[in-house]
Design goal:
This protein is an alpha/beta fold. The chain has two domains: about 1-160 and about 295-355, Quinone Oxidoreductase, Chain A, domain 1, CATH 3.90.180.10; about 160-290, NAD(P)-binding Rossmann-like Domain (Rossmann fold, 3-Layer(aba) Sandwich). Helices cover about 25% and strands about 25% of the residues. Strands 3, 4, 5, 8, 9, 16 and 17 form a seven-stranded mixed beta sheet that branches. A six-stranded parallel beta sheet has the order 12-11-10-13-14-15, with helices on one face. Strand 13 (about 240-245), helix 8 (about 255) and strand 14 form a beta-alpha-beta unit. The longest helix is centred in the C-terminal third of the chain and has 14 residues, at about 300-310. Bound molecules: NADP nicotinamide-adenine-dinucleotide phosphate and zinc ion (ZN). NADP nicotinamide-adenine-dinucleotide phosphate binds next to helix 1, helix 4 and helix 5. Zinc ion binds near residues 40, 42, 62, 88 and 159.
Length: about 350
């Protein structure tokens, strides 16, 4: 089916209208009318070819929410009309150790990304993401959305939400634990909300003095300007876990110094070029760990969505029209996002009709 989308045709080209082909739903497929799609910094890294391996045309978008319009004959979990979500994954091998544990994000044979992944043999080419009006996805990679209303603000949970929830759960953020979140962007603001909801004491580290009041409102107990060495010194040796969401290379030692003995800093930010190497002494003298984490598996993504639905947790968003995406990318690079752009896909449907 011909489907309106927005694509980058090359790394140095802005995104623009581009029609793509979506497959007819197979027996296990769910066809989705996309209502909203969040804008992740990974979309920008990929569209601009900042990470190796971008395939063009590139249609980004992996924070997808919408309604089911059709289901294949073998689909059991979904019905037409239901609200559903799709995150960063649309396929995996299904039989490796990680897949069997519900960790499709760590599939040992390579997961299929919602965009820039290998498309099915029948389709050929590569997958196209959520900057489009419709998508067809295997039911194993479709999530139930149980929030009442405000679907637009649920969209960012599909990547920013799960990417912070997963390390917070893995390293047991909760009552009695002190958690630091570095960077108040899309991922960071969800990290603050989720760590607070899990019952941890939360500090937000930011380079933007103007974000202090917001961070407190979102659930931070402390807000620290990370460029201020005096402020940072007060927080030395205090944290059990730090989740670092920064999208640019920076000095990691200033944050490693804040960990207690046996504390962990988990990197989720994925800059295009490497961070400067850390001081080994900062690690060995306190048995500190430097770790990483990639989104989350499908069962944990559903768990996170339900955790948020029960507590009324959504993202703080600014809704944009599809044709504002290039300006939104520029603002994201200036850390001028409060705190996630979400595309209203009605705008793309109208643009397609007017053509
Ligand atoms: P974002 O909305 O742009 O937020 C990043 C934040 O980092 C900014 O708001 C800013 O916060 C801070 N920052 C930016 N440049 C900085 C610099 N030079 N020095 C220090 N701080 C800086 O981006 P996002 O969508 O949250 O994504 C963040 C990163 O995570 C990206 O690299 C993205 O690709 C990656 N990511 C990884 C995964 C995963 O599975 N691991 C999943 C999704 C995204 P302040 O203004 O508060 O300083
Ligand atoms: Zn993302």
């Amino acid at each position: 089916m011909k489907t309106p989308a927005y694509a980058a045709q090359a790394g140095d080209q802005p995104l623009a209208f581009h029609a793509i082909e979506r497959r007819a739903p197979g027996p296990r497929d769910v066809a989705i009318d996309i209502a909203h799609c969040g804008v992740c910094h990974s979309d920008l890294h990929t569209a601009r070819g900042e990470w190796p391996g971008t395939l063009y045309p590139c249609v980004p978008g992996h924070e997808i929410v919408g309604s089911v319009t059709a289901i294949g004959k073998d689909v059991k979990k979904f019905k037409v009309g239901q609200h559903v979500g799709v995150g960063c994954l649309v396929g995996s091998c299904g039989h490796c150790g990680s897949c069997k544990e519900g960790l499709e994000n760590y599939c040992e044979n390579g997961f299929v990304g919602t965009y820039n992944g290998p498309a099915s043999a029948a389709e050929g080419g590569h997958t196209f993401g959520g900057y489009s009006t419709h998508i067809v996805v295997d039911e194993g990679f479709v999530l139930h959305i149980r929030h009442q209303g405000n679907l637009a603000a649920v969209a960012p949970l599909l990547c920013a939400g799960i990417t912070t929830y997963s390390p917070l759960k893995h390293w047991k953020a909760g009552p009695g634990k002190t958690v630091g979140i570095v960077g108040l962007g899309g991922l960071g603001h969800m990290g603050v909300k989720l760590a607070h909801a899990m019952g941890a004491r939360v500090a937000l580290f930011t380079t933007s003095p103007g974000k202090e009041a917001d961070a407190k409102r979102l659930g931070a107990d402390d807000v620290v300007i990370s460029k201020d060495a005096k402020q940072m010194a007060k927080y030395a040796n205090r944290f059990d876990l730090i989740v670092n969401t920064v999208a640019a290379p920076h000095n990691l030692d200033v944050f490693l110094n804040l960990l207690k003995r046996d504390g962990t800093m988990c990197l989720v930010g994925a800059p295009a070029s490497p961070h400067p190497s850390t001081q080994v002494f900062n690690l060995i003298f306190k048995r500190r760990a430097l770790a990483g984490s990639l989104i989350g598996g499908i069962p944990e993504t559903q768990e996170m969505l339900d955790f948020c639905a029960e507590r009324g947790i959504v993202s703080d968003i600014e809704t944009i029209a599809m044709n504002q995406i290039n300006t939104a990318y520029e603002r994201m690079l200036r850390s001028d996002v409060r705190y996630r752009f979400v595309i209203d896909m009605q705008s793309l449907k109208q643009e397609a009709q007017a053509r």
